[in-house]
Amino acid sequence: MHTDDLKYKSFKKRNNTMQNPSLSDQLVAMLADGQFHSGEAIGEVLGVSRAAVWKRLQALEALGLSIESVKGKGYRLKSAISLFDQQQLDKMAIEFGLPAMALHRELDSTNAELLRLLASHQAEKGQIVLAEKQTAGRGRRGRSWSSPYAANVYLSLLWTFERGMRQLDGLSLVVGLALQRCLAELGFCDARIKWPNDVLVANRKIAGILLEINGDPTDQFHVVIGIGLNVNMLDSHGSIDQAWTSLQQQQKVLHDKHQVLQVLLASLLPMLAKFERHGFNHFVSDWSEVDALHGQEVTVTIGDQAVVGEYRGVNANGELKIATTHGERTFNGGEVSIRKSYHG
Ligand code: BTN
After folding, report:
1. Does the Cβ of 172 fall within 6 Å of ligand 1?
2. By mean pLDDT, which of 69-83, 161-175, 215-229 is the weakest?
3. 70 alpha carbon – ligand 1 mean position (Å)
4. Which of 140, 192, 194, 257 is flagged as catalytic?
5. Which of 47, 98, 125, 151 lies deepest, with the highest CB count within 10 Å?
């Protein structure tokens, strides 16, 4: 295929965002409040027949929304949702001096999409891709990331580094710290980080970070910073094979995702700028204050090897330190996993 064809293909893909909301997008925005809306009223606002409304409602159910229909009252979502709105995102992008954010109703993965944009030279530093739902959300170590429609923030941000891979040490820890501060700002003073970057509230995972790298590690390279933050996810959204929580589950209120994103970017962007200038060294003591593993006996698993020792925090490169019977050992990210040791 000619490269111009490729560009055209991804340009079309890029236009497949929420810049031009479809009837289904307008319908879901109308129902987001969780109140009843009659089929007639919906049809009038959207300029379509009641039969067309019915068809669109079925499409929304296919996205994973539960819709209740009561004779004489109309339709409503079983619980209210918070949806991103492109205009509000446009304003936020201007406020933070970022390129326009690309919002998608559904994507395989925001990280995958940003990597595709990068490959076709359609993404610049600071570019953000958001989705209301991911069908193949990626987690660390090849795991998947549960991404039900409208429930959470699924975000990828492109950052560019000029001076080679050394710079990257500790980046994922800094992003974790930015999330911890965002959560503290939202009232979760007990938010902690479990090395390298699981963000926990009440000992349950509330956010995860996946960095994907593109470019020459010795020269300029790009990092796609993928963040999944559980905002309004509830048990009814399905089961997840690890202890998790969300803002709504903890505080029992529906959170406006714009407000959450605003707080997150206000915390993350200045920290990325500081990290670029000074590296992780400048964050070690702040990070250590919110370290979930402080003072624990831990097991580090690398492949099929397990190393048991006393957790000693992180060094200036963001590497994990463990005091073992054979002396202190350090571990960096990637294949290393860590879990608390269980006694008795
Ligand atoms: C983890 O396993 O803890 C990392 C999860 C990262 C999930 C986010 S959601 C947005 C971005 N797109 C993806 O496919 N993954 C990341």
Report:
1. no
2. 161-175
3. 38
4. 140
5. 151
